[in-house]
Amino acid sequence: xxxxxxxxxxxxxxxxxxxxxxxxxxxxxxxxxxxxxxxxxxxxxxxxxxxxxxxxxxxxxxxxxxxxxxxxxxxxxxxxxxxxxxxxxxxxxxxxxxxxxxxxxxxxxxxxxxxxxxxxxxxxxxxxxxxxxxxxxxxxxxxxxxxxxxxxxxxxxxxxxxxxxxxxxxxxxxxxxxxxxxxxxxxxxxxxxxxxxxxxxxxxxxxxxxxxxxxxxxxxxxxxxxxxxxxxxxxxxxxxxxxxxxxxxxxxxxxxxxxxxxxxxxxxxxxxxxxxxxxx
Length: 280
What we know:
Elements: E1 8-10, E2 16-18, E3 28-37, E4 40-50, E5 55-59, H1 66-73, E6 81-86, E7 89-90, H2 96-102, E8 104-106, H3 119-125, H4 135-140, H5 143-160, H6 178-190, E9 196-200, H7 208-225, E10 228-232, H8 236-242, E11 245-250, E12 253-258, H9 260-264, H10 267-274
Parallel strand pairs: 5-10, 5-11, 8-9, 9-10
Antiparallel strand pairs: 1-2, 3-4, 3-6, 6-7, 11-12
Helix pairs in contact: 3-5, 3-6
């Protein structure tokens, strides 16, 4: 499957976003972002904008700095330089928890579920920002508590139904097959009610049919929730099939940005992935 081709247009900062999103500020914008670890520059002069309903991809060879960029965006790392704007607001000195409340959610390369908890409880944890009752209501089981618990149960099943997993609500998360655990992690991220969903290699370990289903569901999630999705992925069929804008990094630097057609034909991208041909 594929999505309708979208034209990317420049915004005042000279970054590019889909034409349909150009009337509103980008949901995320990075300007001259960089981080050093001691004397090593891991990411340098990273510039990118993501439209409010864009599906964007971040690709590059192993060790190119892709997950480091995600860690900067979610403040696992604090940048050495540059600016990250979330919905137009500077995220300087924000914590990971504060960014979650601002609307960023993510999944990880290595699955990070609460394996001993049920599927439903894993999703319910993601609803913490939306639960309105206080400590006293919880202790005394007052009406406000039961009202919020009903909201949580209904919302959990609604979110699980995106991946047709509602009947697994009472199953132990760690007992699920690998692909189902991947899907559950996405559902838990969606439970935080994000405006930007970061997916770090969501198709890792999936077979071709699972990957095809994932592609359809990422597009459906974007359309259903009207949010932006930014993903790291090595499966080029997935990236080229659903991403509207693609950013390519190598050695921590952006070497190309553009549409799938522009990226697949870019000599610098081909060189980064395949290396230079040596002449005899």
